[in-house]
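Pilot study result, target chain (190 residues):
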Amino acid sequence: MADNLAYQEEDWEELLDGEVVLMSPRPRIDHNRIALNIANSLKNQIEGTGKPCETFVDGTDVYLGEKDRVIPDVMIICKKEIIREDGIHGAPSLIVEILSPSTRKRDKGYKKDLYERYGVLEYWIVSPTERTVEVYLLEDGQYRLDEVYELPSGYDSLDKEERKIYKTVIPVSLYDDVFVPLKSMFRNVT
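Predicted structure:
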């Protein structure tokens, strides 16, 4: 019965530069909604099209060297050979991290540097409170901020000209025809 009352901590921890980092507190509802909205949008556009990539959502370990094991919120894997039963062994093509107060510093600091060092081609940092997404693209081994996308509160009440100043559809650099609209990403988020 005790097994039913507490989750196994080792299932919800990351290893960053050899140090164990507990994934707590657990993600909030809006965090999960955003992750699922992104994953569903990507999966629906990629699956069944012959594109050689697969979408994964929170809960899958990614092994990047001996000292680093992360659990991204959403990712796209295009190299089938790095997918194993116990997780992903190598760099995903795209990683999405959704900020929370307890992860903000790591996601924008150590993890961003880690993903850059291991060759993750595209990295999105999603801020639920600001409703923004920073998109970084790997160029010559270094991340370059490609764009910051924003869905301001009251967006639907803006007129056509006011809406033009905001970029609200994120293209996935891996493909010419895969996009994630911010309205679908933040659907049902309070």
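One observation from the pilot: The longest strand covers residues 142-150. A full batch analysis is planned for the follow-on phase.
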